[in-house]
Specification:
about 100 residues, 5 helices, 5-stranded parallel β-sheet, single chain, alpha/beta
Length: about 100
């Protein structure tokens, strides 16, 4: 299931502590991020065992445009995580929403 930028924005503004997985490269993450942990997509499969999240936890996977995060969601799904959400439109859309408000 996807999460929209407006839903994520509202939850972040409300101060909700969300498990966010950013699958962009380290340079992209260091340039701009919304918190969470950064595991670049190519390293995700081998890093799953190191994640502290329960397989039932809601996990929001983000990237720039929503494509790599969709792949990241699939990888987590295939490894038994049952409540993974892809940020539809990615961080670009979230930044646009923040600028408009």
């Amino acid at each position: 299931m996807d999460i929209t930028v407006s839903e994520l924005h509202e939850r972040l503004i409300a101060g909700e502590s969300l498990p966010i997985l950013d699958v962009r490269g380290e340079l992209e993450y260091s340039t701009f991020n919304i918190g969470g942990i950064n595991i670049p997509l190519p390293k995700l499969q081998t890093s799953i065992e190191d994640m502290d999240w329960d397989k039932e936890d809601e996990i929001i996977v983000v990237c720039t445009m929503g494509l790599r995060s969709k792949t990241g969601k699939t990888i987590l799904d295939q490894n038994g995580f049952i409540n993974v959400r892809n940020l539809k439109g990615g961080l670009i859309e979230l930044q646009k929403l923040n600028k408009d408000q």
